[in-house]
Design brief:
5 helices, 20% helix, single chain, alpha+beta, globular
Length: 234
Amino acid sequence: MPRVDTNLCAPIRAGQPLYRITSNAFLTRDSTLHRQVVNGEGALHSPLGGRYNFPGAQTVYLADAPATCFAERLFYLQREIIAGIDRAHIMPHGVPPFTQPCVLWTVTLAVDMPSVFDLDAHGSFYQVFPSLSLSPSQDYEHLKAKRAEIQAHGYQGLSARSTRSRDGGRILAMFGDLSPLVASIEPTPPEVRLVTRDLPRRPFVNHAVDRLDFNTGEVRALDSMVWETIEFNR
């Protein structure tokens, strides 16, 4: 049976900043509960699974940079909004808000995680189909199955390119509960919004007349008046 090959890994170092984005529901007053953000329970109980996990597989998704998190969040926000618009003729009040708050978590671990498989550099070792690993449009059963194979060989997680990010950002899918390993976890509550495709861009506020930009959104800190443009793949 194959074992972990450290030559195929992109290790995480203790103290290395990692990022995760969630809804406001995780921002509790009791800061001792914040580490639950990285316990992997969301993936464990998801009926559909995620990009790199079957349903029931405990997984913590992290990113290498805040911009990567925002690209991922805008991708899913836009998908949610489009689904709401599609039903608006029968459910006119079912369209979610076009501007939404969220929480960006900055996480460091107290220990090294040396056995994180580098999927981009060495996916061929597990016969990962590169077209699927690069496609941003949906989750694929093939990638979920390859993650299970990688985990079965003893790896602690995998590192892959974020297909939604346009600046080379990377995501991590860690195989298990990281909460006991947290050295620090700090929340920042920004908000994200969708924008129109017309230039100059403006906030998308009316789905009946506005034309949505499918590859651009904006983010700002709650105490700032300045919105930053985030491009993402759809």
